[in-house]
Amino acid sequence: MHKSATAEVLLTDAQHLGGDRYAVAARWHRDRFIEGGGLVDRDDLVDSDALVDSDALAVPLDGRTLDPVLLAETARQAAIHLSHRFHDIPLGHPFVLGEISVELDETLPALTDAVLETHCRRAAEHPRRACLELDATVRAAGREAGRARVRWEAMEPRRYALLRTRGATASGPAEPGADGAVALSPALLGLRQDRDVLLAADAGRSGRWWLRLDPGHPVLFDHPSDHIPGMALVEAFRQAAGLTAVARGAVAPDRVRDVSALTVEFTSFGEPDLPVAITVEPAGTAGAGGTAEPGGTAGPRGMGAPRGMGAPEDVAEPVRATEPREPGKPTEPGKPGEPCGGPAALLLTATQGDRTLAQARIRCGTTGRARRRTGIAC
User: Fold this and answer.
1) What is the pLDDT of residues 227-263, one digit of tens each?
2) Which CATH number characterizes residue 164's domain?
3) pTM
4) Domain span at residue 349?
5) Which of 36, 72, 310, 317 gives 20 to 30 Å between its CA and that of 7?
């Protein structure tokens, strides 16, 4: 799973069911992706009468539900594990993340076990490259709760080193504004610790934040990295989307971390020593961030199709499946007709200098059946 700490490993087993079908078992030791990273005693949490977060988020622990970004991390770990165990990818090969997405039909119970009913295959259009994709249906507490998708490429170390050398020199000049960024209170984002806040507000422009990372963070930097981790951008996108949804009155402040669907497509490595801007606008509207066509060429105008995190745009090719879906296979969040690509979704972009690092489409608010009951969505 490319994790150093045992507490950060979310998988317990995997079985090959035949063809490209696998069952992956997961156990969630905690209910959030980054807050309080590390092993949590499940019995202590379930039996506790304590409250979580700040006074603005006084939610009893027995009412907590699973963080969808933790589900995304679970799917990412499943992709890595299946690659090594069943697809003959040698240990030590770097993985380049191209896309990760989750979509929930209903809230997932926290601190529980789950099974990802998975299709994992090599992309047909890249027979000489280890480009893979995973589509999973998530089952927890005896019911189907949603879907997850991951696209990635496993690289031979020498090729990876070459791409990193080229990418590190292609960022362009840094954008102004990062130096005057304003720190955000953890309570504003439904968090308790300052290290978990990944955004600082741009003092001169609304709808733009600057990425702030603690290199000692036990979850985001569980092991050394020569680039900004992809899951750090996923969490930063979620935080920016939540702030926007609250500011627009689409969700209540105590639901700032709720996400029902997200899709993040990565296009380039992020260098850890250069500022990264996160901007937001309603999905499907024109502007500085351009448009995103779900399932097709994604990103600002002039940006090519997703090429995988860290792959320079003049080298790598899109990694997408072309074969038709089999009946019963999970659909992809963000595809036409799916909630993540609808008009209520938010479009966010991460840039470093003149380069786009990643783009996200996120639907905030209560998930699935609960959303249909309450009408809360952004």
Assistant:
1) 999 999 999 999 999 999 999 989 999 989 999 999 9
2) 2.40.160.210
3) 0.76
4) 6-374
5) 310
